[in-house]
Amino acid sequence: MSGTRFLTLGLLLLQAGGPPRGDVVERLRARVPVTPVTASSGKVPGRYTSTSKELAKRVGGFLSGEDLYLFPDGTYIYCEWADIEPVTVSDKGRWKLSGSALELVSDGDIRWTPSAQRKYVAVRRNNRADEVILVGLDRDLPYIEREAGHDPELMLLIVGLVRTEAYDRAKAAKVKAQILREAWRPEYFRNSR
To answer: What is the value of pTM for the model shown?
Structure first.
């Protein structure tokens, strides 16, 4: 009888996508002191990057990077670049923040599998009141849990996307138009469908 219950529980967990995730902020806090950033703070729209100045000071230059632009109108653009690849929009769509949980949903123009994570948690380090760092739940959080080691704050900067600019509606419209004009290259993904 107990074997049947165990099997049933295992099947239910597989159907639900694995074991429960637990509170993601608490999981992150177990490695590095952070505070959740919530929708009510109004601090979320802006440019987020994997190549912040603070990280560059600690590790040197970068050969590749990613930027996530969250616009006040609820849209986003996710770009990637490398030393041999220009800045390229690899995802765009709509974003929603509920509490400190950020979710991205691609729009119909994206006909390939984007590399951007779909879900993030918005946090700040306890000593940085105006900071926002997005930590992806699928790859970043498990990586921090495994690899935080003796310098968890560095690991947070390595895997997180740090907000480097805030946007109001006027600035956001200009930034969005420029990115789409200069970096929208759907032909790059033609064979990725």
So the answer is: 0.86
